[in-house]
């Protein structure tokens, strides 16, 4: 496992090393230890373009996407644990929608966003990411693992369905919540095509769009590009490392019995 971990971390180490040295990535033999490391590339990234503005836009869009997913996915996941007419067809419809790539729905998504009047806004960027089907099924599997007797006892005590979900289901579904937060944070943080289509002004661009603009400004882009990549990767890696245990439990929820 140690050997595998080392092999998996080599690309990350190489990106970090190149961002600190700006060396030629095609040089042979490659230097294992950084030679004359410096932070000039990070300074260029911060000041050559409005990086703080791009960072703020990405943070706002990511928070909106995560909060929307927590709200809609928990409600949909809990509804799918209940019995109602045509439940099987609803599940099949959701599974079928997972087969449709997002690129095929961009035009109707754009028309709906335009009709709502949220073009070139944070809400418009986050709108298609406010709910994800895979996370709905993660919550469904987590809710189904809760003992039925506990839910029946809560109903006998007079709790409504919403209070059962909020006070019983969610506290017992922390792995599913962590999985939802991590997945949607990464997906919304790295989104490129939809923000490119929906934004009209540079002030509304997110970090992936800022990277494209940065490459058009810089001439020697190797070290600066890798510095930009490191700055973009750090938040996602930090979130994953803080909740990796719950993330793994959330993905494996319902896979075992007992």
Question: How would you describe this protein?
Answer:
With 258 residues, the protein is mainly α. The chain has 14 helices and no strands. Helix 7 packs antiparallel against helix 10 and helix 10 (174-190) runs antiparallel to helix 13. 29% of the residues are buried.
Radius of gyration: 22 Å
Identify the quaternary structure here: single chain
Mean of all residue-level pLDDT scores: 84
The CATH topology label is: MetI-like fold
Taking the sheet with the most strands, its summary is:
none
Helix coverage percent: 55-70%
| Count of individual beta strands | 0
Q: What's the SSE pattern?
A: HHHHHHHHHHHHHH
Total discrete domains? 1
Distance between the termini: 28 Å
- In DSSP terms, counting alpha (H) and pi (I) runs of 4 or more, how many helices? 14
Class per helix and strand makeup: mainly alpha
Summarize the structure in short:
The protein is mostly helical and about 260 residues long. The protein is built from 14 helices and no strands. It has one domain (about 45-250): MetI-like fold, CATH 1.10.3720.
């Amino acid at each position: 496992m140690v050997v595998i971990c080392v092999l998996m971390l080599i690309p990350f180490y190489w990106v970090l090393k190149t961002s600190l040295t700006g060396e030629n990535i095609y040089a042979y033999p490659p230097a294992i230890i950084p030679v004359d490391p410096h932070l000039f590339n990070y300074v260029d990234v911060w000041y050559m373009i409005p990086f703080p503005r791009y960072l703020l836009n990405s943070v706002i869009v990511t928070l909106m996407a995560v909060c929307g997913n927590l709200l809609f996915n928990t409600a949909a996941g809990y509804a799918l644990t209940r019995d109602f007419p045509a439940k099987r067809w609803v599940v099949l419809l959701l599974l079928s929608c997972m087969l449709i790539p997002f690129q095929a729905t961009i035009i109707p998504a754009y028309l709906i966003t335009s009709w709502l009047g949220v073009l070139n806004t944070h809400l418009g960027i986050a709108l298609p990411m406010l709910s994800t089907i895979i996370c709905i099924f993660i919550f469904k599997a987590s809710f189904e693992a809760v003992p039925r007797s506990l839910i029946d006892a809560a109903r006998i005590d007079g709790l409504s369905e919403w209070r059962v979900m909020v006070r019983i289901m969610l506290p017992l579904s922390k792995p599913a919540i962590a999985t939802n937060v991590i997945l949607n944070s990464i997906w919304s943080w790295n989104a490129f095509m939809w923000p490119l289509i929906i934004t009209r002004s540079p002030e509304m661009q997110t970090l992936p769009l800022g990277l494209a603009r940065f490459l058009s400004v810089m001439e020697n882009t190797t070290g600066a590009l890798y510095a930009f990549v490191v700055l973009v990767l750090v938040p996602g890696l930090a979130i994953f490392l803080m909740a990796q245990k719950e993330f793994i439990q959330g993905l494996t929820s319902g896979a075992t019995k007992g």
